[in-house]
Design a protein that fits this description.
Distance between the termini: 42 Å
Shape: globular
Structural class: alpha+beta
Strand content: 25-35%
Bound molecules: coenzyme A
CATH class of one domain: Alpha Beta
CATH architecture of one domain: 3-Layer(aba) Sandwich
CATH topology of one domain: Aminopeptidase
Number of helices: 6
Order of helices and strands: HEEHHHEEEHEHEE
Length: about 200
């Protein structure tokens, strides 16, 4: 699909996306100060492709590259905010969109202080729902390093199935780690259990 057509398809998503507790919207340059300390935490970056150490210039480059991706209709990164307080909680988004085969890669991270409150599940559910309903995607896929059982749990809760294991695909310090590949087809998405709206 040509970038203009892809961009207009992406434009069908009504932003911001709102869920019971969260607001999801594309990153802006003014988000960089809040973003950097959260993703600079090694516990957040370790199972992802987020560079470490993470500096202000990385945050600025991230915002620029995501704006370009969106303009070209190749992806839509979203930051996750607390609906009540507007505080930045994490990030998610539609990555590597393949319009021909109607699939995209799901990614997410949550600030360390907010883990275990169902935020990744709620945000990822909203992204998948928009992907299937608004973008008419057929498939969502996600890759998880084998030691990241929390993330695998998030995906399983949403209905993703384990589809494969890539041996020693990821370098974790001096270790090689397997990568687990998960997939979700249209019609397979499960709703997460509702959590109290005040966290
Ligand atoms: C993975 C991550 C996004 C999860 O975010 P979160 O908001 O804490 O996730 P949720 O609260 O929605 O769900 C976590 C689930 O894992 C469960 N869990 C916690 N520790 C676990 C463990 N060791 N093994 C398996 N499940 C575990 C929690 O109980 C919860 O499930 P529940 O709701 O059924 O109780 C967050 O830990 C993170 O940002 N990690 C670093 C970045 C990352 O890994 N990104 C994903 C790359 S694929």
């Amino acid at each position: 699909m040509r970038p203009v057509a892809a961009r207009s398809r992406l434009g069908q998503i009504r932003l911001p996306i709102r869920t019971a507790r969260l607001v999801l919207r594309p990153p802006r340059r003014s988000d960089v100060s809040a973003l950097v300390p959260l993703v600079a935490d090694w516990r957040v970056a370790r199972p992802t492709t987020i560079p470490h150490p993470y500096r202000r210039s990385d945050g600025e480059a991230f915002v620029r590259s995501q704006q370009r991706q969106r303009r070209d209709g190749k992806g839509l990164a979203l930051l996750i905010f607390d609906r009540r307080t507007d505080r930045l909680l994490g990030g998610t988004g539609f990555h590597s969109i393949d319009w021909r085969d109607r699939r995209f890669e799901l990614g997410y991270w949550v600030a360390r202080s907010e883990w275990g409150k169902g935020i990744a599940t709620e945000a990822a559910h909203a992204v998948c729902l928009e992907g299937f309903r608004t973008l008419r995607m057929h498939r969502v896929h996600a890759a998880v390093v084998a030691f990241n059982s929390k993330s695998a749990h998030v995906l399983r809760k949403l209905g993703f199935r384990l589809e494969g294991r890539e041996r020693e695909q990821h370098r974790d310090g001096r270790r090689w780690v397997d990568m687990l590949r998960f997939g979700l087809l249209a019609g397979e998405l499960r709703s997460p259990p509702r959590r109290a709206s005040r966290r």
